[in-house]
Amino acid sequence: REWTAGIVGVFKGVIALDGKTARGSKDGVASPLHLVSAYATSLKLSLGQEGAAGKGNELNAIRALLNTLVLQGCIVTIDALGCQTDVAATIVERGGDYVLAVKNNQQTLSEAITDFFDTAEAYAYRAIDAQTTASVEKDHGRIETRRAVLVTDVSWLPPSMRSAWAYLGAVGMIETTQEIGETVSIDRRYFIASTGVKTVGDFAQAVRAHWGVEAMLWVLDVTFREDGCRVRKDHAARNLSAIRKIALAVLRMDSRHADRSLRRRRKLADNRPHYRAELLGITPLP
Question: pTM for the full model?
Answer without folding.
Answer: 0.88
